[in-house]
Amino acid sequence: MITTSAVHSKRWLSIIIALAVVLRLGAALYLGDRVEVLPGIYDQVSYHTLALRVLDGHGFTFPSDWWPMTRAGAPTAHCSFLYVLYLAGVYAVVGVHPLAARLLQALVAGVLGPWLAWRLGRHVATETVALAAAAITALYIYFIYYSAALMTESFFILAVLAALERALALAERPSWGRALQLGLALGLAALLRQLILAFVPCLLLWLLWQARGRVRWGQLLAPLLVIALLILPWTVRNYRVFHRFVLLNTNAGFAFFWANHPIYGYDFPGLLPPDGPSYQDLIPMELRHLDEAAMERALMQRALGFIWEDPGRYLLLSLSKAREYFKFWPSAASGVVSNVSRVLSFGLFLPFMLYGLVRAARDWRRWSLLYLFVAVYTLIHLLSW
What we know:
This protein has helices at 4-31, 44-55, 81-94, 98-124, 127-139, 141-147, 153-172, 176-192, 200-210, 217-242, 252-259, 292-309, 311-325, 336-360, 364-384.
């Protein structure tokens, strides 16, 4: 039987979703039917270019020398294959119209973002909290902005929300269907941004602890199998073009090398100053003849060498990244759009986030998965980005 309160809640959720869709469609229309370098969304040029190359039959290659050190016509695995295929699919159907891809993405994000936040909130708190989570998701400026950008962020966030929601559902009532759904959500998240793979072992250990005695070993292994099946075709593709093992993407070594380079000393500046060396300048000359996969592996080894030579510097440098990671104030190094987005999203909601973290500690076991994700995801970025 559907109660009056349930009808009232669904009505509010529908209003929130409608508002989210309108705001995101507005952002998509504002960015328009062109692809250009804009604050915080530089990578959309790369994704758009790769999609055009795939459509023209050139595969995952760039028409000219490209960021970070990929030569013209050479195979690349630096960007998300799945997102490139999304863009290529949209362009194949409606023509090369970035606005179409923006509008579709904005619609999906506007509907699923608040809905998944609401479902997640119902697992750990009350209906009121769930609706508040949906409303914040709808109004959060960063979410609105990135929902219109031709980049992985929006779809990745949706996949993460779905994974967390399915993990909570699996812990509450284990079933094979929920285990497979969890694997699908995690697999899609990995195809969009592979760093989520570092969280998977933590998630499975949490499930083992939270649902011990009720969840079967096979239901814990099923998500891993689904993830492996989704990644395997790209691992095979990478071996064929690079002649070496590359699990999925080739960006980790580059990011780890740049994030921990000795040029920073003990204090991470966020971005290299414009009057100093560029990120490409930091790549040693003796490595620049290598293909993308070999260079990525060599840079990872160099970065690990930096840490081995001075672990104290690495620790202090990682701690200093917290300033940039949690920055909520305007910065002279940022443009107007970036500063306004930062202050009116993270800056505006940070006090409520902190209050929520403290308040939820009263029922920490129910909220433990969300605490775990926040801690692990933050640690990954502080230590490696």
